[in-house]
Amino acid sequence: MKKDQINKDTPIYTISVVSNLLNVSVHTLRMYEREGLIITYKKTSGHRLYSQNDVEKISCIRNAIKEKKVSISAIRMMYSLLPCWKILGCSEEERTQCKAYNNYDNPCWTVIHYNNICADKDCRECPVYTKQASCNSIKDVIKDLTK
DNA sequence: ATTCTTACA
DNA sequence: TGTAAGTA
User: Fold this and answer.
1) Contacts for A71 with CB less than 8 Å, ≥ 6 apart
2) What CATH number is given to the structural domain containing A142?
3) pLDDT digit string, tens, across residues A42-57
């Protein structure tokens, strides 16, 4: 069997690398995570690792904040609008009972799920989170769902 | 040397 | 946002 290949979701960059890559302070990178905008991979040591998709996502976030004057809470709200129930195929029952579906302040991956399909899943590896890596890929998600 | 969390100017 | 303390 072949070993897992490196792909765009593989955590490889340390926080300092990302900091240099995007000209964002490590402090700010941690803040984006606290604010629920991104999910980082954590080593057992507690140290963060970022994937290529994470870098692209943060780049998109930076552009929104710096160039378009979008607030962090506004970005959080946009993420909360992602049609996770469609992407994951939730039943109407699951959807209407879901705490993520019933709010538009926080992304689904920041919501604690108990008895539904998301309960024992790692949101970092969930398509709802991974498929909106770059700015335009959100549209691709919608496009796939509506065709 | 780097990164972590928490706290504070 | 930046910086500092005290760790790991």
Assistant:
1) A65
2) 1.10.1660
3) 999 999 999 999 999 9
